[in-house]
Amino acid sequence: MRKIIVSMMLLLMSYSVKADDFNIPSVKSAGVINLDNRDIPTPVKPSVDKGIFSKDESQTNQTKEWTVMVFMNANNNLSEGQLFGLVGKWGTKDIDEMKKVGSTDKVNVVVEFSETGKGAKRMLILKKGILNSGEKVYLTDPKADMGDYRRVIDFVKWSKQTFPAKKYMLIIWNHGLGWIDPVMSNHTAGTGTSKGISFDDNSKNYIRTKQLGEILKNTGYVDVFAMNACLMQMAEVAYEIKDYTGLIVGSEETMLAYGFNYEKLLNFINSNPNSSKTQMSDFFINWYKQFFSEGANVGPATMPLDSVAATLSTLEPSAVKELPQYLSYLATVAMKNDEKDAVKSAVSSVIRFTSIADPTEDKKKMIAPYVDLYDFARIISENAKNSETKKAANTLMSFIKNKLVIRSVGINKDAENNYDYTKVGGIAINMTMKVKPVPPAYDDILETKYQDLSLSNDSSWDEFVSWSDKVWSEN
């Protein structure tokens, strides 16, 4: 979720869905898994502060329209971190937004929340009253490892069993590093030396890319899977989770620590419980546009965001399944037709996202492997010498625009590199970095090798990246 600097020294089943329908039976699972020979978390008697002007709205035996599940890991600098020079308690801020709406007769709001030094608590969020905290706590765990993907599995299973609904939304809330799974033995998580999805500073653990797929595979279908985290709207990530969700929400770029506006999100769901995929997508995109146009509230002041590059998009998972054939088509013909000049042009000028090195030091994004896939294909099409290559690139662009990406927005520009983010296509992918040669330490920090990802196994894109690396090194 978040613009956190990465040190240079670190450099380092299937469901058939209608295109616009959420009304698909969700798999309900029960049970508690065992972590380190102990059940997690420790049950406690459900408790909620009841005031004279509040009421307990939890009805665990009632099937509602939606259950919104938010896995919030603030066992890192998101429990209390800086943005625009001011310290913010970002997890608490988002939960306070949820409490302005709370659980209703239509929507359950369930949160697993852990922050540094306080352990984890699993709770139903209620509308906060004068003498009501807005929390009904069911489970606590003072030693929670929020980086263990099995904990998310347990949370989702418990939520579905305890708060059944017709539709489910799962939000993973934390830092994000796209497909890269870094070796963490000698580094801390999310505190300036690395980023990742659900990094836990205490355990030095985090959720790996392929484990995202395991989470959904083991918990059953969710209608919306949203990543309130940086850099996660990637082809490599989406391909791991494509079989188990109806809509994927995420950002190609970094996201500010503000995260989603949970008050507006819950109000939208309550007002539109039968919303379609396009309507849900429109909500996220319109909210993001409004947030950046109005600026961020920082204490009594409003901080303009016109110099902050940002993206947000929604993907159609059933189309993600088709992506390998389009990637392989372009990769195969580009290599066969020896399109070296077109590839060099694309590597040189494609829109890139935040560097995995220190962004303040790597302003030219030399060490930034994530590129906008639509923009990459566009540059290949414009510079290819062979009509077959142009056709493959145009076919991929059409697929992205008309089938894969439901809604997308790019905001502002990167003047340093002449990147116009309003032209992004909504999905990023791994590609050759501009730096030459690639630092030897890069491969050493990769716990997961690129060729081992599911997208690499099902397409020729990893071979194309290797070929492109060689072409670029010759330049």
Structure description:
It is built from 15 helices and 20 strands. The two termini are 36 Å apart. The chain has helices spanning 8-11, 90-99, 149-162, 209-219, 235-241, 262-271, 277-294, 317-320, 323-336, 340-349, 373-383, 387-404, 441-444, 454-458, 461-473; strands at residues 34-35, 38-39, 42-47, 64-74, 81-83, 86-88, 107-115, 119-125, 135-141, 165-173, 224-228, 248-250, 296-298, 301-303, 310-315, 370-372, 405-411, 413-414, 419-420, 428-430. Strand 1 and strand 2 form a beta hairpin. By secondary structure, it is of the alpha+beta class. The protein folds into 2 domains: 19-317, 3-Layer(aba) Sandwich (Rossmann fold); 322-473, no CATH class. It is 32% helix and 20% strand.
Strand order of the largest sheet: 3-9-8-7-4-10-11-12-15-17
Shape call: globular
- Helix-strand category: alpha+beta
- Average predicted local confidence, pLDDT: 83
* CATH fold descriptor of the largest domain: Rossmann fold
Using only C-alpha atoms, the radius of gyration works out to: 22 Å
Main pleated sheet: 10 strands, mixed
What are its keywords?
475 residues; alpha+beta; Rossmann fold; ten-stranded mixed beta sheet; two-stranded antiparallel sheet
Topology:
Elements: H1 8-11, E1 34-35, E2 38-39, E3 42-47, E4 64-74, E5 81-83, E6 86-88, H2 90-99, E7 107-115, E8 119-125, E9 135-141, H3 149-162, E10 165-173, H4 209-219, E11 224-228, H5 235-241, E12 248-250, H6 262-271, H7 277-294, E13 296-298, E14 301-303, E15 310-315, H8 317-320, H9 323-336, H10 340-349, E16 370-372, H11 373-383, H12 387-404, E17 405-411, E18 413-414, E19 419-420, E20 428-430, H13 441-444, H14 454-458, H15 461-473
